[in-house]
Amino acid sequence: MLALSGPLVHASEETIKVGILHSLSGTMAISESVLKDTVLMMIADQNKKGGLLGKRLEPVVVDPASNWEAFAEKARELLTVEKVAVVFGCWTSVSRKAATPVFEQLNGLLFYPVQYEGEESSRNIFYSGAAPSQQAIPAVRYLMSKEGGQVRRWVLLGTDYVYPHTTNKILTAYLYSEGVAPEDITTIYTPFGQSEWREIVGRIKAFGSEGKQTAVISTINGDANTHFYRELIAQQISATTLPVMALSIGDRELHQIGADRLAGQMAAWNYFQSIKSPENDAFVKMWTDFNGQRDSMTNDPMEATFVGFRMWGQAISQAGTVEVNAVRQAMYGQRVKAPSGFEVVMNTNHHLSKPAMVGKINSAGTFDVVWRSISPIKPSVWSRYIPASARLTADWSFPWVCGGCAEPTFKDW
Fold it and tell me: Are 186 and 154 a contacting pair, CB within 8 Å?
């Protein structure tokens, strides 16, 4: 049994505290605010069922305000002052990486619900979003196929931080392995909150007019997406002439843009609201009922939050305690029939096996699923397209106890 110190909820306490670490203001609030409400929904639902271990769940909400350093400060506050049993939070990789050392130092537990670049593995984080092998790579493969338009030229467009940089490094290596020439790939990065897109979209348009079918892989994050898509509309760029495959925007963000004018543009996720399954019907109803019928729109990170919370609750019940080391072990192998329509499982690399999907915007401004994997894809945390990563293993089960090693290791804690 691991003997590291960490936040505990003692039997004498009347509630189990659940930390919520999402930006409720600043550039990322457009994406993150709804995840705070999703966790509150899950807490309310669990409390209706009697809580966990006979105790009510108590939410503790903080606002890092899209300030990456504040994520570390707020994480420390949640773990040391509020004594939460678990934290659900972060969106950008820079916010997650800022908070990770705090969770590792204090042996806290973070559930991270957003697709990301992979290339890391922490014993204190469970990743319920997709790794590149479950989203970015399948999206590019789809675009290269006859069904996806046989794209041969690529614009890798992203916000200037770790997730787009690392994802594009992996995608570039993958494209090279598929015979794409360096001159057929261009990479562009912009700051968070970028609002002026005319010159950038003009460059993309020019690159795409040189004789080969071209597509944009977008890892733009936050409210910059609103300005980017509006500029596509302003310059009359359609999905026929220049398709955009988004990896960080879904129904909710597009709804604020006027997505009916973006018909045919695409996004790659592991869940879309339009999925037909009994589990999704129940999930959408649960969300609509929770907010009093004011909002019926769900998205992928909301579904990932739902799955992560359900698995955490199952692990708590199985372990019979909220003690972090026991819950961590109980998480391995947890299964949930997800709103995606697939049964998803938590692996010992702290990532979910998940289905990959491509959605296309229809005339109503919502996504139709035009492709999906046959079954859930087991995640490759360390990319096989990066030589230094291809030899690494992410596995926190005995006797590995290692998230990035080439040989088995064992530590007698």
Answer: yes
